[in-house]
Design goal:
globular, alpha/beta
C-alpha cells in the first residue's frame, strides 16, 4: 500500500485515509494507486462490508495535483488516474466497488473532493468544510462525474451554480442542496462517518449490496452516455490555450485570462 494512503480495518469497516497533509492531500498518481488498491481490497475481501474515506490533517483534499497529474492525463485521459485497477473511486473509468462508501470531509474540499462525494453513498461534513469545483476557472471541465451526477442528484440549478461559477460554498449550503447528509463539529467528522459505517455493516450484507446495486443500475444508462461524451471532448479541452493559461495562472497564483481558444 502506498505511504500516501493509510488503511485500517475496524471490524467490518475499512478506513481509508489520504495521507499527504503537507500538500493539503492533493491527489497525485501515487495517491490514486494507493486508493485504487484500497478500493480493490474493500470490494474483494468478503469480511469487509463498508468503506470510509477521509483525509489526514486539516483538509480533505485540494483536488488533483495538476503539476504531477496533467502530463499523464494529456496522454491517457481519465484512465491514467486508476491505471490497471479494477475499481475506480470516481466510478468513471471503471466500476465503483460493490459495497457502500461513507465519506468524511473537512477543511478544503475542492474539485475532485466533490466528485468523490457524488460517487460515495453517504457524506458527513465537518462544519469548517469549504467546497469548490474549480475546473472552469482553470480552463477545464470536471471530468470525474460532477457534470452529470451533480444535476441528477442535487437539482439542475443547484449543480450549475457551483459547476459554472467556481464559487466556494460551505457546509450549510452543501447540506441544503443534498451534497452532504450530515454536518458535525470540526474534528468529529471521521468519528461520525465510522459510526454510520458500523451501522450499515451491522445490516445483512447481501441485502445492503443488492440495494446498492439496484440503485446504481437505475442511474447507469444515462451516466454511460455522459461519460463517453466527456471522454470525447476532454482531449481537446486539455490541449486548448485556455487550459494552458489556467494551469499557468494556478502556478503563478493570479487570475486567468481566457480567450476561448
Amino acid at each position: 500500500m502506498s505511504q500516501t494512503v493509510t488503511v485500517e480495518l475496524d471490524q467490518h469497516v475499512l478506513l481509508i485515509g489520504v495521507n499527504r497533509p503537507e500538500k493539503r492531500n492533493a491527489y497525485n498518481v501515487e495517491v490514486f494507486e494507493g486508493l485504487v488498491a484500497a478500493y480493490q481490497r474493500l470490494a474483494e475481501d468478503s469480511d469487509i462490508r463498508v468503506g470510509v474515506l477521509y483525509g489526514h490533517g486539516d483538509h480533505f483534499s485540494a483536488g488533483l495535483d495538476l503539476a504531477e497529474v496533467a502530463p499523464a492525463l494529456a496522454e491517457q485521459g481519465p484512465q491514467a488516474l486508476i491505471g490497471s485497477g479494477p475499481y475506480d473511486p470516481l466510478g468513471f473509468s471503471g466500476p465503483l466497488p460493490p459495497k457502500p462508501m461513507v465519506l468524511a470531509v473537512n477543511g478544503i474540499a475542492y474539485t475532485l473532493s466533490i466528485e468523490l462525494a457524488l460517487a460515495c453513498d453517504v457524506v458527513v461534513a465537518a462544519d469548517d468544510v469549504r467546497f469548490c469545483q474549480l475546473e472552469i476557472g482553470r480552463g477545464l471541465l470536471p471530468f470525474g462525474g460532477a457534470t452529470f451526477r451533480a444535476p441528477a442528484r442535487l437539482g439542475w440549478g443547484n449543480a450549475m451554480r457551483f459547476l459554472l461559477t467556481a464559487e466556494e460554498f460551505g457546509a450549510t449550503e452543501a447540506g441544503r442542496i443534498g451534497l452532504v447528509q450530515e454536518v458535525v463539529p470540526a474534528g468529529e467528522h471521521v468519528k461520525r462517518a465510522r459510526e454510520i459505517a458500523r451501522t450499515i455493516a451491522a445490516q445483512a450484507p447481501l441485502g445492503v449490496q443488492a440495494t446498492l446495486a439496484n440503485a446504481r443500475l437505475a442511474r447507469a444508462a444515462s451516466e454511460m452516455i455522459a461519460i463517453e461524451h466527456v471522454r470525447s471532448i476532454l482531449p481537446g479541452i486539455l490541449a486548448s490555450a485556455d487550459a494552458a493559461e489556467g494551469l499557468r495562472s494556478f502556478v503563478e497564483r493570479r487570475p486567468a485570462q481566457f480567450t476561448g481558444s
